[in-house]
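Retro notes - structure team

What went well: the batch runner handled both jobs without manual restarts.
What didn't: labels got mixed up in the shared folder, which is why I'm recording both outputs here explicitly, each with its sequence directly above its tokens.

Job 1
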Amino acid sequence: MSDKRFKRDTRLGHLGRDPARFDGAVNPPVYHASTVIAPDTATFKASGRRRFEKGETVYGRFGTPTHQMLEDALSELEGGADTVALGNGLQAVVVALLTVAKAGDHVLLADSVYAPTRKFADQMLTSFGVEVDYYDPLIDGAGLDARIRANTVAVVLESPGSSTFEVQDVPALAAAAKARGVATIIDNTWATPLFFRPIEHGVDLSVQAATKYIVGHADAMLGAVTASDAWANRLRETVYTMGGFAGPDDVYLGLRGLRTMGVRLERHQASALKVATWLQERPEVAEVRYPALPEHPQHHLWQRDFDGASGLFSIVLAQPYAPAAVAAMLDHFDLFGLGASWGGFESLAIPSDPHRTATTWEAPGPVIRLHIGLEDPDDLIADLDAGFARLTRAAG
């Protein structure tokens, strides 16, 4: 459903569906397929050329109708030309980078990027002969222009940044890169295309760890990359060459999650705002790093570019609590779990250690990353209140 007459949640309920194609079934079936039989030799020989054609199923590694339904839906939501569904968020980052960069090229990454993105860039990209540099995520367009070299091919953004939630001036940075013929890649997992559409702001490749809010139930791994017109064919060719498609069952769970993502995100946002506002008054907390709060340093950029905020943010503790005191707080929550990932219905609280090379991270105390799930926010506040009591007792 590409009809812009309909509002967001209506479109979420109908995108990536084609009941007439599937005998009237409301949801598309899960296609488990590797081999796809061709009717004749001519068709078989032409199958490689047809892999770019929408609606064609020529080999399992090139995707099935299940994949096409999710990819078409995400392309529509992101405002892009094409989307590829991949096994997880990191794979999506890797595919986006390898779509653009080759040996001898130079890539600039925000100093606040997702830690596994940094690890891939530092260990794998460099081993492929790609030069890697990091930049201050709060750099402006002129500052970014000064960092671009003759061999720079990509600028990687993440807004807000992992753990520390700096909001970048995406339109200005994308414009500066485009003026120099440099591609831009952004990790858009935090906002999803419901709250931010990077391609409309000049970005070339938008990456999502669809494991998070698209799946939304902590039961599947999924990634996605959406490309602008200029990069759509290159992106799909990269995926076909690497062989990185997601499994059909996980893709189906992504389609299922898509239907309720709008209402879930609204609840995540409302609860996160309530909890974050409460946290601002706690003496144990020096800062709540949540872009939707007016006190956030880049709140004006978030307000200008985003349509909402998700349930993920961090708090900076007010003093250098010892690791044992922080563990006393985190180890005994009734509702907040200690676990990687986020975006599901469950609330999470983990210690975070921001890593910087281009800038310096300075804070009065440890950082704790919170994901506010779908539980009642008053219950979550009570759980946090008890956690702060444990923190204080352990600190002596």
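Job 2
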Amino acid sequence: MHLREVTDDNREAVRALRVRRDQKQFVASVSKSLKQAARHPEANPWYRAVYVGDEPVGFVMLSWKPPAGPYKGRHFIWRLLVDKRHQRRGIGRETLTQIAALVRADGATELLTSYDPGEGEPWPFYEKFGFEPTGEIDDGEVVLRLVFPSR
């Protein structure tokens, strides 16, 4: 599994990725994510397609140390999705592992994300990875933090 830039050559294949119907309330589509990234350059969006071999299987987007706002100077996972045909194979976990390594290499001491609570929410996935609630709520979403051990 590897991360690859979204380019004109793969944009349509990446935009075609879909989560299961019961997950749609928790994660926006790749198309919506790319539109949000374009509309909010101040959030310093950083996004990649997730590939297994030559096939796109997922998408991840971070707010990478934005210069202002509630996550100023921090790394925040804005979007993470694995296509419904490729779930339950460890791809989400491996994506988080790679993202955590990239963020840590950038000098971060933590990685943030959030989720919308509800039936089928992604909290168990993040909890297994080591994320903990910060106690903050952002626009109705529970904010989580993965703290990196000191080196």
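One thing worth noting from job 2: The domain at 2-147 is CATH 3.40.630.30 (Aminopeptidase).
We'll revisit the folder naming next retro.
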